[in-house]
């Protein structure tokens, strides 16, 4: 028997009851094909899918997953039915009634349009997720119909009867829940509903985002304006419903959901050269805010119109690291965590981690409470958290976030500053660390000089 015959026998004959090699090969090829199709389909849907919070990032979800699980209202299937969210289900039905009434359409017609989209909407979620699988198309459409009407009515007319009990606290909770990664409905649902009754969703998200991520330098005044804004969202005259085409945002951008639109609204004015900058080495040492102050790099609040601006300028004598100013409270902390989680789910490369890079740089600047104070004093950070709480929040984030390209860019700029200005840095560090002693010596010298001047003047008079 030749070698070829022996090889053929191995292919077709099973040994010890195990599948023949040919059967194994066929099964393996079939699995390879199906797995490739599934992965390619997942990648194709990556930007439009409504993701679960990444398992690797759950450490930044806060105590009891407070930045992951909604506190007052479930939007979408992932948290639908949780006991503590049932009270708002009644409000959803009232919101749907008002929406259909204001649109002059029957609930059957509006619901029917969402039912028509149920198949496409289902594919926007993890289709093997139990929370989605258990719902029929009719049940999924009913949930999306109620959730969509609730969101649009809250955006346009939060003074309606069903929101009559809204106060500052619950208003914040609704805004927080609206931007949770796992608490979203597909944009196509909102798009369909605004076809019946136009609501300027883009303008609402941009307006809210601008209030939470301000550029004003008047910190105290801004906080007061922010509190007034939230109260007005709960007790204001019904807003004019503008067609989406009239909004100020880039209408060509189709977000997957509201959280994606929030991130876009914060980054849409980011210059193209900032997006295209290629980062180099990532093996660079970080520096805290106090350490930067020691080497002559002062922190300033950026005046850029987008969140995440970070750049180091080399002035004639000193350096200047400007960062987008950030207002931090429980709501913005939640939004920042969820935007970072969204980037982890959808970013193709390091350039997609803009928010994560910004958070990583802010966290890098904080080693001690003194660093937090330095950021506050320079107007970079405005927080309702204490210094201890703020430090814990950012250091907890930094342990889990992906270090994006823009983070590396800032480290490169700091490293370049250190490398090119050793003499000025040494002189400034000496002055920074010994300024109290120097000030004391100069003060004493001033006193002594004053005494000598007085003695000299007295001698001149008596002489």
Automatic annotation (TrEMBL):
Q: What InterPro entries would the database entry show?
A: DUF247_pln
Which keywords does UniProt give here? Membrane, Transmembrane, Transmembrane helix
Q: Which domain of life is it from?
A: Eukaryota
Q: Where are the transmembrane segments?
A: 437-458
**What is this protein's record name?**
Uncharacterized protein
Natural source organism: Setaria viridis (Green bristlegrass)
């Amino acid at each position: 028997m030749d070698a070829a015959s022996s090889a053929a026998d191995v292919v077709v004959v099973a040994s010890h009851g195990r599948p023949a090699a040919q059967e194994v090969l066929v099964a393996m090829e079939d699995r390879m094909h199906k797995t490739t199709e599934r992965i390619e389909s997942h990648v194709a849907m990556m930007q439009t899918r409504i993701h679960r919070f990444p398992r690797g990032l759950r450490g930044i979800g806060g105590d009891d997953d407070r930045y992951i699980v909604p506190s007052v209202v479930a939007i979408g299937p992932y948290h639908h039915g949780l006991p503590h969210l049932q009270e708002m289900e009644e409000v959803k039905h009232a919101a749907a009634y008002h929406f259909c009434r204001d649109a002059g359409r029957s609930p059957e017609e509006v619901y029917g349009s969402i039912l028509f989209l149920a198949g496409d909407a289902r594919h926007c979620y993890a289709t093997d997720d139990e929370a989605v699988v258990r719902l029929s198309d009719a049940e999924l459409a009913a949930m999306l119909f109620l959730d969509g009407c609730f969101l649009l009515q809250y955006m346009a007319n939060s003074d309606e009867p069903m929101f009559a009990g809204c106060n500052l606290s619950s208003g914040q909770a609704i805004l927080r829940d609206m931007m949770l990664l796992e608490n979203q409905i597909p944009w196509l649902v909102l798009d369909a509903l605004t076809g019946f009754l136009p609501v300027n969703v883009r303008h609402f998200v941009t307006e809210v985002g601008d209030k939470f991520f301000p550029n004003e330098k008047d910190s105290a005044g801004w906080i007061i304006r922010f509190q007034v804004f939230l109260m007005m969202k709960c007790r204001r005259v019904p807003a004019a419903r503008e067609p989406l085409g009239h909004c100020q945002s880039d209408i060509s951008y189709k977000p997957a959901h509201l959280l994606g639109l929030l991130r876009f609204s914060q980054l849409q004015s980011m210059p193209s050269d900032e997006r295209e900058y290629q980062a180099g080495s990532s093996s660079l040492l970080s520096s805290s805010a106090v350490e930067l102050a020691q080497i002559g790099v002062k922190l300033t609040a950026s005046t850029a119109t987008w969140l995440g601006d970070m750049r180091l300028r080399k002035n004639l004598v000193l350096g200047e690291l400007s960062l987008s100013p950030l207002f931090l409270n429980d709501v913005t902390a939640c939004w920042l965590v969820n935007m970072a989680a969204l980037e982890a789910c959808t970013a193709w490369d390091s350039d997609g981690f803009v928010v994560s890079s910004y958070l990583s740089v802010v966290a890098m600047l904080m080693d001690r409470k003194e660093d937090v104070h330095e950021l506050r004093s320079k107007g970079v950070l405005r927080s309702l958290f204490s210094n201890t709480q703020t430090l814990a929040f950012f250091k907890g984030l930094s342990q889990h976030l992906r270090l994006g390209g823009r983070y590396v860019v800032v480290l490169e700029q700091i490293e370049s500053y250190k490398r090119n200005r050793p003499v000025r840095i040494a002189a400034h560090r000496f002055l920074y660390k010994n300024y109290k002693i120097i000030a004391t010596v100069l003060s004493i010298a001033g006193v002594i000089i004053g005494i000598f001047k007085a003695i000299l003047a007295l001698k001149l008079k008596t002489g």
